[in-house]
Amino acid sequence: MSNMTRKQMLKGFALGSIVAASSGLATGCAPSSPLSDAGNANGTEKVYQFAKRTSEVSDRIPVETDVLVIGGGGAGVCAALAAAEEGARVAICEKTSMFGGATALSSGKIPAVGTAQQKEKEDSDSIGACAMDIMRPSNYSVRPDLVYTAVEHSRDIVEWTEGFGAVWTVDDALYFGQTAYRMHTTDGEGEGLMDALIASLEAEAAIEPMLSCEIMGLILEDEADVVVGAWGKKGSEDIAIFAGNTVLATSGFANNPDMLERYCPEATGAVKVVAPGATGEGILWGEELGASLQNMGAYQGHAFHGVDNDKTLEQGVANNGGIIVNRDGNRFMNEYGGYSEMSPHVLAQPDGIGYLVFTDVQRELSRKYPEWEEAGIVAVAPSAGELADLIGISRDKFERTVADYQKALEVGMDKFNRAHLPATFEGPYYAVKLTGEIRHTQGGVATDVAGHVLREDGTLIDGLYAAGGCTEGFSSRGGAAYMSGNGLIQALVFGKIAGIAAATEQRGEAKVAVWEKTGIDDYL
Length: 524
Description:
With about 525 residues, the chain is of the alpha/beta class. It has 18 helices and 21 strands.
């Protein structure tokens, strides 16, 4: 176990232990609104399922801090570090035995504009161009204030995390849907980024890390729905943590089967490549206090999960001219597109299975083919019909599919309007079996651009902030539309923003923060 990386350990967590540690949230025991309005003598006090009044936690061991952060992924760690920089005492609670969350499992990529690294490669990018690229997959239906805030702070977040030891480089690839070379990747991907941030967090005297600390709900004032902390268990101890302000950074709900079925039913059959702690409780805590939930049907998928090696495959094989067929031997989509947007198309096929079919043209351009060959996951045959027989799909239909694709190469466009086509598609033919993944959900509690949690009527829930996967994302209003790096830049930028606000604002005095567009989006 000591030789395992943080990413391997997070991926290897038994789901049963996470479900057990989540107070029934993943097994359908989680109403999303107050249980009743039964109350005190004047009938004004609400009874909640998760939240408790201050007087109800008086028998618990009290802990006091300036800022409480719940969740130890990228958003939570950034919130804690930012709050400590502002002079606050911070307690950060993580229900699992290690920090990392979804960020440690990520590829460590964010779109960023105007960094020193980007200027060495790209001289025609802008805040506005990046924001438009992010909003395009959703048909511009997501909140521009969140998108612009993330992009406007992208250079800062690169430079700020460099101060904690992160090392960023700009990728050589022009990512699908992006109009400039702006994708930054950290050394060691998401795990390397978290290693640097966690080391800085553990070295900061003002931050108290609390691992294996299961928060079960928020604490409210006795007379008002003002958040004054949270309650739960630290080991065998029943604790109540009181804080000036509280930051939810509890991730999304991709590991909560009931919430996934409710909000993202087309992804329930997907392979879960998700943080073990992404069980959605923070969203439910906010909802029962009246927080507005937004974009709950949105998620990041991935259409290229290898069934036979249980690893994410290389999308480049499809980008370079490979096709995907179902068990009937038919193509069903344009294979040149966003990896997330394609995932529901794969999952909608019989048994959620597809076959990535390619030729020597794609094989010679593939970085991962040698790994696939060594793992024995590739079927190879000299002709289309023989490949169909080998993988067990309809011979006649697959031969017709290949013939139709070959004809499309002659005219430069196929029946799915695909124009990014190879020069030839002649045998021998190769096939790898695939299905779809879900990486994380992209909906949650609504916040303003300072991280304040918003009610349905636009007012603030006093004392409560949020960032990362438990908040309203900006990938889409629903479905798998997604731009690479959205989840991570949202977590890092708004984690820092929420941490600063929680450390510098007095509970009850905060105001809704409104974003205003400036000339900052001019081209560099």
